[in-house]
Amino acid sequence: MRALKTLGKADDPEASPSEGQIEKVFPKGPILILLDELVVYMAKLSDRGQGNMLGFLNSLASVVSRRPQTLLIVTDPAGQVAYATQSATLAKELSKQQAAAQTLNNVFDRKVSDFDPIGKESAQVITRRLFKHIDPTAAQAASATYHSLYERVLQEAPGTLPPDAAGAKCAEEIVRCYPFHPRLLVTATDRLGILGDFQKSRGVLRLFARIVRDVWESKSDLELITAGDIDWTSQRIQADLLERLHKQEFKAAISADLEKHALELDNGQQGIHTRVASAVLLESIPMTANNGMEPADLAFAVLRPDEAGPEPAEAIERLMGVCWHTYPTSTGRGCEFRYEPNVRKQIEERMAHVPIEDARTRVLSEAQGYFQGMTFKLRSWPTSAAQVTESADLQLALCEDEKIAKTVVAYCDDSDPTALMPRGFQNAILAIAPTNAALNEAVLRAKRLLAAEAIQRDSQRDARGEKQGSGKLVLDQLKRIMPELAKQFQIQTRRSFDQVVLPGGIVRHIDETHQVPEDQILAKALGQSCLKKFLEDNNMIYEYGQALDVDRFMKDVLPGTTPLPDKPGVYTAKHVHERFLAAPGLRLIPTDSLVVRKTLLNAVSAGKIVVRLSDGRAYDATGHVQGPQGRRRRVPDALQSVTLDDTIWITAARSEYAEEWLKEDTASSPSGGPGGGPGGDPTTVVAPRPTRVTPASWDEVLEYADDRPLLELHLIASTPGNASSLLNVAQPLGAEQLLLSITTGGVLRDGGYNGLCHSRCEARPPGKAADHCTDHIQLSR
Fold first, then answer.
1. Distances in Å between the alpha carbon of 300 and those of 124, 161, 247, 273, 320?
2. pLDDT tens-digit series, residues 385-406
3. Residue 56: per-residue pLDDT
4. Which of 194, 455, 618, 633 has its CA 20 to 30 A from that of 684?
5. 167 to 163, 293, 374: CA distances (angstroms)
6. What is the mean pLDDT of the chain?
């Protein structure tokens, strides 16, 4: 109180005491004067107040320099950018005093000097303050483990880590900073230290103490404590890093992205995504131009010894794909957190305004395009069985749910629930429907895509108007994520239709091995080819070249075929075909019906049936009988093809009709032949068998077709697009064999010609003709 009275009005921030007043304040005897962190106090003063304080400091130092047994200590929180101006001013004044007191130093043997009590030992100071004892052996072991990790990663994937991560200096830093990772200390002291409300010494100690406590309470077994191990859900951590630093707006990022999105990517357990998000958020707190982290620095900050190396960079990509507050850094490769929500959050909010019917329509349209093709006759979105008429072509009903699919496959008319009409051609239809949960997810992704497209339209309009800056920022974000949104929508839509409904109400699930691979997802109509492969691999459809067992045909198919009205044992090929389509227990019959034709030919060869053509020729196992009544003769031959129409008649080999069709006439032998013995009429001439001809015009084709069977048909395409559809065009013609020849070539860049020729390749399965080539490849230059 005596000292304050002595100072009087000089005891005020806006005033400054004289040296005489200061000397009167000091008591007799040794004195230690400590002025702690003056710059923090200076920052709160006016310019005049700061000048007065510096004047006081000048006077005080002058008095101390003249007074024996008196020491003045002024502490300066060096490196804290928030007080850089005040620190510089204070240092300038002290340097003046140091120069002025030099003469007195020589006299009194005192020294006015700067002294840094911590220097380069900030890490050791922190660990000594937090731990009673640090095991040096454990520190060396951790350093060796991480040194080995960084060496391995840099060898396997250069660029994954900073180049000096595997150096000796880094290994020494790990020992010095143990149990903390060096990068965590750098972030706390250098990155957070620039914030005015973060006290560099006390703030770091308090933060690290709370991190250690959280790690201890979670019972985590860690080699080193890294930025990825910060528990942002802890109220203690949030109080230190958000509330004390006035960064509460980051709580939205914590709740949405760390507690939700990152944790979901980690399947509910803290993993690489949570650790990466934690480290990035810590680096984003200062909100400076170089916010966030690049992939190499992030890998250095959070990588663990049991990880391969690329995990942090991969985690960044996935986090950027789902988080609401992440933004790319200026390089485009790194990641940072911001207060304001990114375009993904805007999309989620905009989704609420997208009508669910619009999204569902988008899903159905995408699915319909995916299942277009030539293998199945597509029937899209029937709501009743009557909308899918009977057809000999193999039909695929694309249905909105499994219930409709089962009805369409089972019935041809369900308009009257009391008189349901079963479907006749049950082997010529199947249906595909989505799993409800998968369809709902596809609709959700469609809503997300539609919302993004709406935001894109709005942003394009803003970019042309007054909101150019915000519009361009949103468009830049959309440019990055739109392809992924579209891809995820397509994948989910196409894979949601995975319930195959077969005759008899059988439902089979298409597994992932028969779904379109992700690298081919952008190809449009792959649904039918994937479905066909699934059916073939599970023996649900007859493949190319397959036939029904002859004995089963004779037992289960032919007896159930509708005969001719006036010939009970005779069946037309068309009716046999229809019986195949309707017979229970058979597989699906492809549209080309080759299985029917091949079965009939096998039955003829086995001597089980006789086939009569429209011109009267009757085929059995040994050949055919031809000619008009009275002159029918047997010709050793084999049946090559069958047309599945009403002109072809079929009967069992032992039936009376077979005996009638195969009856041969005995040639008449009247006496008095030209040679004096028995013989036929020399005027009777047997018509020669037609020779092979090649017509040159459609008129000739029609002329020859009256009395000659078609032996070979050549279809020619001059472009790859047309060539891709040749097999689909050729298969319904019922040929015994499909052969494919390919010729292509071109001029080489450096001269010469490169030609490629595949000749008469057996076209099975489509697209693999080169595997069955019977000719060679010609290359010339």
1. 21, 6, 26, 15, 19
2. 999 999 999 999 999 999 999 9
3. 79
4. 618
5. 8, 21, 63
6. 84
User: Peptide bond preceding 765: is omega within 30 degrees of 0, i.e. cis?
Assistant: yes
pLDDT greater at residue 703 or residue 558: 558
Distance CA 137, CA 656 (A): 103
Query: Among 664, 656, 661, which Cα is nearest to 639's?
Result: 661
How far is the C-alpha of 287 from the C-alpha of 342, rounded, in Å? 16
Q: Ramachandran region of residue 588, left (φ > 0), alpha (ψ -120 to 50) or beta?
A: beta
DSSP for 149-196, please give it: HHHHHHHHSTTSS-GGGGSHHHHHHHHHHTTB-HHHHHIIIIIGGGST
Q: Which helix (H) or strand (E) holds 619?
A: strand 618-620
Coil vs helix vs strand at 742: strand
pLDDT tens-digit series, residues 649-686: 999 999 999 999 999 988 665 555 555 555 555 444 44
CB 344 within 8 A of CB 322: yes
- The pairs formed by 12-20 with CB atoms below 8 angstroms and a separation of 24 or more are 13/45, 13/46, 13/49, 13/52, 13/53, 14/46, 14/48, 14/49, 14/52, 15/52, 16/52, 16/53, 16/55, 16/56, 16/59, 17/56, 17/59, 18/59, 19/59, 19/62, 19/63
Q: What is the pLDDT of residue 772?
A: 43
Residue 776: the pLDDT is: 39
pLDDT in tens, 82-133: 555 555 665 665 555 444 444 334 333 444 555 455 555 567 778 888 898 9
Q: What six digits make up the tokens of 634?
A: 């047997």
pTM (2 d.p.): 0.61
Q: Tally Cβ neighbours within 10 Å of residue 654.
A: 12
Q: Which two tokens stand for residue 18?
A: 């004289």
286-to-79, 207, 340, 702 alpha-carbon distances in Å = 15, 15, 15, 86
Q: What is the 3-state secondary structure (H, E, C) of 83-116?
A: HHHHHHHHHHHHHHHHHHCHHHHHHHCCCCCCCC
- The three-state (H, E, C) secondary structure of 110-146, written as one string: CCCCCCCCCCCCHHHHHHHHHCCCCCHHHHHHHHHHH
Q: Decide if 392 contacts 545 (C-beta within 8 A).
A: no
C-alpha closest to that of 431 among 358, 506, 369: 506
In sequence order, what are the beta bridge partners of 564? 567
Which pLDDT score is estimated for 677? 53
Residues whose CB falls within 8 Å of the CB of residue 576, separated by 6 or more in sequence, listed in order? 557, 558, 561, 596, 600, 644, 650
Cβ atoms of 334 and 326 closer than 8 Å: no
Q: What is the pLDDT of residue 408?
A: 97
What is the distance between the alpha carbons of residues 260 and 323, in angstroms, rounded to a whole number? 9
**Separation CA 49–CA 375 (nearest Å):** 90
Residue range 556-581: mean pLDDT, rounded: 96
Higher pLDDT, 747 or 36: 36
**Torsion over CA of 42, 47, 53 and 58, rounded to 10 degrees?**
120
Q: What is the model's pLDDT at position 775?
A: 40
Selected residue with higher pLDDT from 88 and 204? 204
Sign of the CA dihedral running 153, 157, 162, 164: positive
- Helix, strand or coil for residue 585? coil
How many helices (DSSP H) and strands (DSSP E) are in the chain?
A: 30, 19
Tens digits of residue pLDDT in 240-264 = 889 888 899 999 999 999 999 999 9
